Amino acid sequence: MKDLTRGSIVSHILSMAPPIVAGMITIMICQLVDLYFVAGLGEAAVAGVAAAGNAGFLINGLMQVLGVGTVALMAHAVGRRDRADANLVFNQSVVLSVLCGLLTLVVGAALARLYMRSVAADEATVEAGTTYLLWFMPALALQFVMQVMGAALRATGIVRPSMLVQVLAVILNIALAPVLIAGWGTGHALGVAGAGLASSIAVLIGVLMLFGYFHRFERYVRLTPAQWRPQLRQWKRILNVGLPAGGEFAIIFAWMGVIYYVLRDFGAAAQAGFGIGTRVLGLIQMPALAVALAAGPIAGQNFGAGNARRVRDTFVKAVLIATAVMIGFMILAQCWPGLLLAGFSKDRETMAVAMQFLQFVSLNLVAQGVIFTCHSMFQGLGNTKPVLLSSGTRLLTYAVPVIWLSTRPGFAIEHVWYLSIVTTTLQAALALWLLRREFRKRLAPPERKVSPEPMAAE
Q: What is the DSSP string of 135-173?
């Protein structure tokens, strides 16, 4: 366990963020590698895998319910020096993660084709996306357990083990992708099914490695079978913090679904270009997101310890670091977008859409960094309802205008990107206002008790 209530806040952020970003970037690279090899199967395959990947946002929302709830409650317990409560929250989160994984397998298998029909531009894209989803679903189910274990370590200030496991799992995924997708060395190409299967095998091995780490090396919290009996009170604590944050990912899922819907009239190439562009954009957002994720446990431990000043300082320093990082990547995306997108598709129309998307939407990067940091601070404070309000407002202010515009003559694909810039900026302003209000409510100094004046002698 690492005590985040002492020492330099900037040092804590800078020591925790690189392993976090390394883990996230390797996962994103894995998805990009899948798209790279799937690109050889044709435009419909790329569009299908990209659209199917959007379903991952919905599953990630459920994962965030457990991950955010685990990080917040465990960080508060660590700040209070309450090891028993931290261990109980961890074990109950593991139980919930197993149940959510099983539910994902059942529901995902039942609804995969229905989902693809609702967003895909043609039948070939529906088939490719459905096939990929069915083989990718075990990976999504297993990631619930991986998410909870990583969240537990992050709450205690430890990030390297989960990063190393993620890196090893992604290396395995990258190695399996050409073998299973294109049939390298075997002569048996599985196509888009191979992309999903490679991910599922890699995540399974990653989960087994994390179980091994907790069994042999972790000492602050342990996997304790005696605490695996469901305790509804603990589940309620976890869900009260996690559900609003998970709702944010459901809103992102809906937001992405709206974009795929309005892009249908522009054809499969537009959907494929958007899918490639969003993954590259997600990759360059990872460093700022890692800074925000590092700030969350720091704020959580200090909030649990009652140190309001360090909570505020954590936000200021994290948002400054995130802003500097995002400015650098915005310049890169504006000046050299082709460098970031090189090699993902040979279709000129697809790449033209991806390049246009990246240049327009990269103007959001600074505002997005502010949003990441604000939302992470809400998680650290243990109140994620403002996160849901912030994201829901963005969805409303984006979806209604863009759907209306899509029905009007002269609707152009640029309108989709213009609205994204405006609504993301508005969301950043709202998130800052909500966080300022939360600080006033939850970090207010305690009222001083005024001792009564001694009574005058009669």
A: HHHHHHHHHHHHHHHHHHHHHTT--HHHHHHHHHHHHHH
